[in-house]
Amino acid sequence: MEETTSKGLTLFGSILLTIALITLVVILFSVSQAGAKTGQEKMVGIQQTLSQTEYTTYDNSTMTGSSVLNAVRQYMNQEQFGVRVITGKGGITTYGNQFDDNGEIIEKDKNTNIKVAQDQSNPNYINPSGQFKSQIVVDKNNVVRGIIFTQS
Predict the structure, then answer these.
(1) Three-state helix/strand/coil letters over 24-66
(2) For a Cys-Cys bond, which of 50, 122, 137, 139 suits 146, CB 3.0-4.6 Å?
(3) Which residues cross the membrane (predicted)?
């Protein structure tokens, strides 16, 4: 009888130990999953910040026309992005995607023809030695969707 009681206690102890180990694994998994989610959210924030830093030079600064032309060449082929140039002769042209003041892309057809920007007889001519004020345009998700250059 002592043998049966001993075997029963051993079996009961083994079952309790197994349940305790399973509970411990579940708790550790839950904690590590929450930590991984927090880490992933921080990485997304860092990545977004880094991707937006390339546009900080265009945030409320004054640039030459040659810098504007370089920006047009660099950004006009990007997805979901546009560069609007307002010249002193009254010309307004958007290179890349058309966007509104809220940063929403309103036209998917890209304008990649910069010949008008280099034609001195055209109102959209970008004078390389001219001065332009720049500003960035962000959408509701705080993603940069465009740059506006206004000749001063």
Answers:
(1) HHHHHHHHHHHHHHHHHHHHHHHHHHHHHHHHHHHCCEEEEHH
(2) 137
(3) 12-32
Kindly list the strands in the beta sheet with 131-138, ordered across the sheet, starting from the edge strand earlier in the chain.
61-64, 131-138, 144-151, 82-86, 92-99, 105-111
Quote the tokens at residue 32: 């590590």
Domain ranges within the chain, ordered by starting residue: 1-57, 59-151
pLDDT, tens digit, 9 for 90 and up, residues 128-141: 999 999 999 998 88
Q: What is the pLDDT of residue 111?
A: 87
Q: Specify the residue for token string 């830093």.
A: 53
Entry field: residues in the chain: 152
pLDDT (0 to 100) of residue 45: 72
